[in-house]
Each structure stands twice: as structure tokens, then as C-alpha cells.
Design brief:
The complex is a heterodimer of chains A (482) and B (183). Chain A is mainly β and 482 residues long. Chain A contains four helices and 34 strands. Classes of the chains: A mainly beta (482), B mainly alpha (183).
């Protein structure tokens, strides 16, 4: 008969039973832990790409693992329409950048180009976290590089015209994580707060969402850090799930990493067995859907919440009505999905060893073709530089070599970097590509070192400049003119 | 002493304790095993640095704490672990009190669970918990107090159901005709 738990001594006996149970469980072997650590060191970059997609929800490269379309004949092509020019080097921003993280293969560096300024970060883990800004028109630093000390776990970096947001795990903060906002003109810390990582925080559109208790979410003003609103869910456990972009957006002159206008202002919050969609700026609820099953991933597209549960992705209309089974992953895999263009949904099936991706019709959930990427108009661009039409057929020439990375520059143009290997290192070739017919023109080359894949995936662009990390700092090139 | 020997010695001296801690946070033996292996895998990757820490075990607890509360990381770890590990060895059925406590712990907020685990499973004092969690002693006392109260409430509720169940079972056993009449 169990003991009465109302006294502390009896509670101790309950914990003693739990402790005994834990003690009968084997922690595994030291050799096993060491092997696990070693395996991670040698993890394939392909795994990194898949995880990046799953964890960050970004189109970082799952398409590398998707069936690769057969390249068409590579005949010489005329110059694409647009404003591409031969690469013109801009003075680099010197900054020491450590190699890829052995934990997940990601490079501890990022670039966001905004209003003609490249905001960059490097460091984390065993290297100091540094933040810098380079005026791309003049080649001069906007402010002296800011050293934020040692941080464990890679920080989240997000940019908005009102500030450069840094969130992570400073080594001196023990059990707390820290969020801070830097002034984009001076690099000075405008405000900072610590928070309990148990609950979490995410940057959204002009607001930082923070769980201050298991059942309370608050919205903090991006510029001042002041609390804008507070939303309690009494007696329920809350998880901020984030939100999808309503539709993939093009980089503009203002650009790629700028949150404003790119993220939906609505934010998805998991509340127990429900999903609450709230306005990130006001904290007001747009509506709630009740899930049919436990879920691991959830996001919003237009007025539909997509939630991944095991092998299945279910679509829950915010306007009411029954949920629809949108996608089922193959046996032994888990599933998630996110919007990837007007009327399209990209589903990802993943297991420890495999990733497969498929593009679905957003209205019927019929599979269109196997790929992953972003559609603009009637063209679909995979992260590795393949340009397809909406039936999955290759449009014009694709890259020269095995590894590429690409970005939409405008509705008409795409910028690609593809790698060619020489004896001991790679050369990166930058090309402008016409989205309409795939015609490409080579704009220039730069040396990409011996292990270029994580490095070129950390590059950033706007409509005129390309900025990439290298061992000695951030290098920038102008690739288009007005 | 080679790095691996030193690491293995450290592992043998601390792993079972870390598993207790992970068990208290996750209330799931398979997940606790995963987290412990993952924490030591990370420690091995940085062993030359970790070994110089004043309290490497505290670093491991911090890693386990973060892993236990990061759904995305947990998902990835579980997938990796599932593919790389053999099925766990069978263990005897757990004590009834342990099962009830596991169910009750799952209803608590993570900070309360963490404080209770450090206190009851690792015998840490309030001052030690405060230092480890970077909270004030008053906050820790509050976590423990509220955690105890919530646990007691849940356990009493579960025990009530258990007692009723036993009573019904006993009635069914001793008075089969009565049970039949009752239906």
C-alpha cells in the first residue's frame, strides 16, 4: 500500500523509490558516450542540412538529399535579363571565424544585409561572440566590432531596423539565458534581460515573445525591451511554437534576414492540447484550434495551422471545420510541413538516416513532385540551385557541379554559388540566373577553402550585395547595379 | 593518464548520479538514458576544457537540464539514440510509489521539478540548489514548497483512486455474487 504523501518524510520515501528505480537503470557505458561524441565530429554535412531544416525551419539544404533532377545540356547561354554586373569586391570586415561546430556541422557565423549594411556575427562555443557591421557602399565598418564574450550553444541572431537581437547562453550566466538588443548604428547594448531557458523566447515581428512562467506569455517591445502585453493561460502549459511566414518573401534592397514583413505578425502558441494563434504585437488571440493528436511541430499559413504528429501532418482551418490529413510520411519516419510558395506546401519526412521532401498542392494536398525550396510565381528554386517549373521539370541549365547554394534576388533573377574542387580546395563561382528560362551568366569567382559547404550556406545577400564568411572575416561583393 | 582513461573514471564515478537527475527531470527512463549519454558525449568532445572545471558534474547537470527542456534537441537526440543504441536491458517492475511519483512529477513546472530532484534525489541543500540554479534561496524554498504541495495533492488524489480501485477489486473477489447483483 503506498504511503500517505502528506508529510515530508513520506514524500522522501516516494523519492527514495524513484531514486531506486533510477539506480536500477543503466546509464550506458563511457565508451558509448565517447563513441557518440566522436560520431558527431564526423557527422556528414548532409545530416547538418537536414537538421537545419528541422530545427530552424529554414530552407538550408534538405534538397541536397532529395532526388536531384537530371541536368539538361549545358550550352553557352546569353546574359540573363536584370542588372547583374561582374563581381566587384568590397573591402572585407576582418573578424576571426572558427570552423563548423562539431556538434551539428553548422558554422557559428551569420550575415544579414539590411539597408546597404551587412550585419554579421561570428563565435559561440569556444570562441568569443563578436558582432560587426560593414557599410557595403563605402567598405567601412559602421561601428567597431563588439565583443560579447564566451557563449555556449549558438546564439539566435535576428535583425530589424530597430535593432540587432542576440539571444543565447552566455557562459557566465549558469542556468540563465540572455537576450540583448544592440543599436544598429553604434553597436551599443540598448537593453538586455536574462530569462529561464526552461520556458523559452523567440524573436518575432517587432516583438520578442517570452514565456515568464509555464502558463504565461509576454510580448516585449523590440526597441525598448518593455513589456507590451501579457497573456496568461491559467492552469495550462504553454510552448511558443513560432510561426511560419505567410508566404515566402523575396529579398528586397532591404533584405533577407530582416524580420519585419517577413514573419507573420501572428504567432503560434501551443497551449496544452490546443494551438492558440495570437497577434505578436497586441497579444490578442486570432483563434484556437484543438488538436486531434499530440504534435511536435506546428505553424501557421494563411488561415490554416499545420501540425506534425508522428508520420502525419494535419491541417486545421482557423475558420472552423474538420482537420484534414495533409501528408503521411513513409513508415518509420516523422513528418513536418511548411509553406513554400503561393498555393504550395513542402512536406519533409525524416528519420535518423534519411530525409525526403515533397511539394504538395496547398488546396488538395496532392503530391506535385519530390523537392524542397521556394516558389515565386511559376518557378520553384531549390536551396541547391535547381530551378524548376511547377511540374517539377528543370528550367534551363542548372549548376556546373555537385554543390550549390542559391537565393531569389527578384521575381526574375536568381543568384547562385556553385563549387568546383581543385586539388586541395574549392573555388566558388557566382552566377546570375534568369528565373524564366534558366539562362545564366558567370559573375566571378572566389576561393572557398577546403570545406566550403557550411561557409557558403552562411552567406547573406540583398538585391545588390553578397557577403560571405571566410577564415579571416567577412568578404563582400557587389553583383548588381541599379 | 590518457584522456579516455580519465574520462572513463569520471564517467564511472558520476553517471549513475546524473541519471538520477535526468530521471527526475524527464520521468522517463529511456529519455533519461539518452540525455545522460548525450551530455557525456558533449563532455567528451570538450573534455580537455571540461576536466579543468571546478565542478564538471555541475556542467553535465546543466547540459542535461537544457536538453531536457529543449523539445527540438530531444527529438534529434532520441532519433539518433534510437538508431545507434541497442534496446535497454530489462529492469524489474518499478515500485508503486515510484510510478505514482512519476505521474505527479509530470504535472509540475520544470523549475519545481528541478528543485525537487536536486533536493530529494541528489541530497542538495537549499543553498546548493540556489547556487546551481542561480536563484535566491527564497525562490528555491518557494519552488520546493509549492512543488511539495502540488505533489502531495496529486499523490493523494491518485492514492484515492488507487484505494477505491483496490476496494472494488476486493469486493469483486470476496463477494462475487454481490458484484454480480450490483451489475
Amino acid at each position: 500500500m503506498p504511503a500517505d504523501p502528506s508529510t515530508d518524510s513520506n514524500l522522501t520515501s516516494f523519492f527514495a523509490a524513484l531514486g531506486a528505480l533510477a539506480d536500477r537503470t543503466s546509464p550506458g557505458t563511457a565508451e558509448g558516450a565517447r563513441r557518440r561524441g566522436e560520431r558527431r565530429r564526423h557527422r556528414l554535412i548532409a545530416s547538418y542540412a537536414a537538421v537545419a531544416v528541422l530545427v530552424a525551419g529554414v530552407a538550408g539544404g534538405a534538397a541536397w538529399l532529395a532526388p536531384r533532377p537530371a541536368p539538361p545540356p549545358a550550352d553557352p547561354q546569353p546574359t540573363p535579363t536584370g542588372t547583374f554586373i561582374p563581381l566587384r569586391s568590397v573591402a572585407p570586415l576582418p573578424m576571426e571565424i572558427a570552423g563548423p561546430d562539431p556538434d551539428d556541422g553548422s558554422l557559428p557565423a551569420s550575415v544579414t544585409v539590411l539597408d546597404g549594411v551587412a550585419y554579421v556575427h561570428a563565435g559561440g562555443n569556444d570562441a568569443p561572440l563578436r558582432v560587426g557591421a560593414l557599410n557595403l557602399a563605402t567598405g567601412s565598418p559602421v561601428f567597431p566590432t563588439v565583443d560579447l564574450g564566451l557563449w555556449d550553444q549558438g546564439p539566435v541572431i535576428a535583425m530589424d531596423r530597430d535593432g540587432l537581437y542576440v539571444q543565447g547562453d552566455p557562459r557566465d550566466a549558469r542556468s540563465e539565458e540572455r537576450m540583448m538588443m544592440l543599436d544598429p548604428a553604434t553597436g551599443a547594448v540598448r537593453w538586455e534581460k536574462t530569462f529561464d531557458p526552461f520556458y523559452g523566447a523567440i524573436p518575432a515581428d517587432g516583438v520578442i515573445l517570452l514565456c515568464v512562467s509555464p502558463s504565461t506569455v509576454v510580448g516585449l517591445d523590440w526597441r525598448t525591451g518593455e513589456e507590451l502585453w501579457r497573456r496568461p493561460y491559467p492552469g495550462r502549459t504553454v510552448t511558443i511554437s513560432g510561426g511560419y511566414t505567410s508566404a515566402p518573401s523575396l529579398p528586397s534592397r532591404a533584405t533577407a534576414g530582416d524580420l519585419r514583413g517577413h514573419l507573420d505578425t501572428r504567432v503560434v502558441i501551443a497551449v496544452g492540447e490546443s494551438i492558440d494563434v495570437i497577434d505578436g504585437r497586441s497579444g490578442q488571440s486570432h483563434g484556437t484550434v484543438t488538436l486531434v493528436d499530440d504534435h511536435r511541430f506546428a505553424g501557421l499559413n494563411d488561415d490554416t495551422v499545420f501540425a506534425g504528429a508522428g508520420r502525419e501532418v494535419w491541417a486545421y482551418p482557423m475558420t472552423g471545420g474538420a482537420p484534414t490529413l495533409a501528408y503521411t510520411a513513409p513508415e518509420g519516419m516523422e513528418a513536418m510541413a511548411m509553406p513554400c510558395g503561393a498555393g504550395l506546401l513542402c512536406a519533409v519526412a525524416f528519420s535518423d538516416t534519411d530525409v525526403s521532401t515533397v511539394v504538395l498542392d496547398r488546396s488538395t494536398y496532392q503530391e506535385l513532385f519530390a523537392s524542397y525550396g521556394t516558389a515565386v510565381g511559376d518557378r520553384f528554386l531549390t536551396p541547391d540551385g535547381h530551378l524548376l517549373d511547377l511540374t517539377g521539370q528543370v528550367v534551363g541549365p542548372t549548376g556546373n557541379d555537385d554543390e550549390m547554394v542559391s537565393w531569389w534576388v527578384s521575381t526574375a533573377d536568381v543568384l547562385t554559388i556553385d563549387l568546383s574542387e581543385t586539388t586541395d580546395e574549392y573555388t566558388a563561382t557566382v552566377s546570375g540566373v534568369s528565373a524564366q528560362d534558366g539562362r545564366r551568366v558567370e559573375l566571378g569567382q572566389f576561393p572557398a577553402g577546403p570545406q566550403p559547404i557550411p561557409w557558403i550556406h552562411a552567406c547573406g545577400i540583398d538585391t545588390h550585395y553578397l557577403v560571405c564568411p571566410a577564415g579571416d572575416g567577412f568578404h563582400a561583393w557587389q553583383f548588381a547595379a541599379d | 593518464m590518457p584522456d579516455s582513461d580519465e574520462f572513463d573514471t569520471f564517467y564511472r564515478g558520476t553517471a549513475q548520479r546524473l541519471l538520477r537527475y535526468a530521471y527526475g527531470l524527464t520521468t522517463d527512463s529511456a529519455e533519461a538514458q539518452d540525455l545522460v549519454q548525450e551530455a557525456y558525449a558533449r563532455a567528451w568532445q570538450r573534455w580537455r576544457q571540461i576536466r579543468s572545471y571546478q565542478d564538471p558534474e555541475a556542467w553535465l547537470r546543466l547540459v542535461v537540464t537544457r536538453l531536457a527542456t529543449d523539445v527540438w534537441r530531444r527529438l534529434r537526440i532520441r532519433r539518433q539514440a534510437a538508431a545507434s543504441q541497442r534496446p535497454p536491458a530489462p529492469v524489474p517492475p518499478p515500485d508503486e510509489n515510484a510510478l505514482l511519483l512519476v505521474a505527479a512529477l509530470r504535472t509540475l513546472p520544470p523549475p519545481h521539478r528541478r528543485a525537487l530532484t536536486l533536493h530529494y534525489l541528489l541530497d542538495r541543500s537549499i543553498a546548493q540548489i540556489a547556487a546551481e540554479t542561480n536563484a535566491s534561496e527564497g525562490t528555491v524554498k518557494s519552488w520546493l514548497s509549492r512543488g511539495r504541495a502540488a505533489l502531495a495533492q496529486h499523490l493523494r488524489s491518485d492514492l484515492g483512486q488507487e484505494t477505491n480501485h483496490r476496494r472494488h477489486s476486493a469486493n469483486d473477489t470476496t463477494t462475487p455474487t454481490g458484484g454480480s447483483d450490483a451489475r
